[in-house]
Design brief:
With about 110 residues, the protein is α/β, with parallel strands linked by helices. The chain has 4 helices and 5 strands; from the N terminus they run H-E-H-E-E-H-E-E-H. Strands 1-2-4 form a 3-stranded parallel sheet. The chain has a two-stranded parallel ribbon with strand order 3-5. The protein is globular and about 35 Å long. The two termini are about 30 Å apart. The C terminus is likely disordered.
């Protein structure tokens, strides 16, 4: 989160200011997405008004969804798409452990 806190200082965001995050993502690294999610919640706690949006023709897949959900205001165009899927771990195979993880995610 230190990187994001430094970004706030660079952007000079203060309580009461608005921040619009426009998303168009097919997902990515879980840890990065969760850090962005935590950062946006931290901004909200500091009084910054955070809006997340999916623009026309945009999509928000996988780990993008928690980032979108972190906005106090969330706006999605009528043709925006969202893709949800169970947690997936590359090191897992079609073992019972994987089946159990998929069942739990449902």
């Amino acid at each position: 989160l230190n990187f994001f806190k430094q970004a706030v200082q660079t952007l000079q965001l203060s309580p009461g200011e608005d921040l619009l995050i426009s998303l168009h993502s097919d997902g990515g690294e879980i840890s990065v997405g969760l850090n962005i999610h935590a950062f946006l919640l931290w901004l909200r706690e500091k009084g910054v008004s955070v809006t997340t949006q999916i623009p026309e023709g945009g999509f928000c897949h996988s780990i993008c969804i928690p980032v979108f959900a972190a906005g106090a205001q969330r706006v999605a165009d009528g043709d925006a798409t969202f893709f949800f899927h169970p947690a997936q771990y590359p090191e897992m195979t079609d073992s019972q452990e994987n089946q159990d993880a998929l069942t739990t995610a449902k």
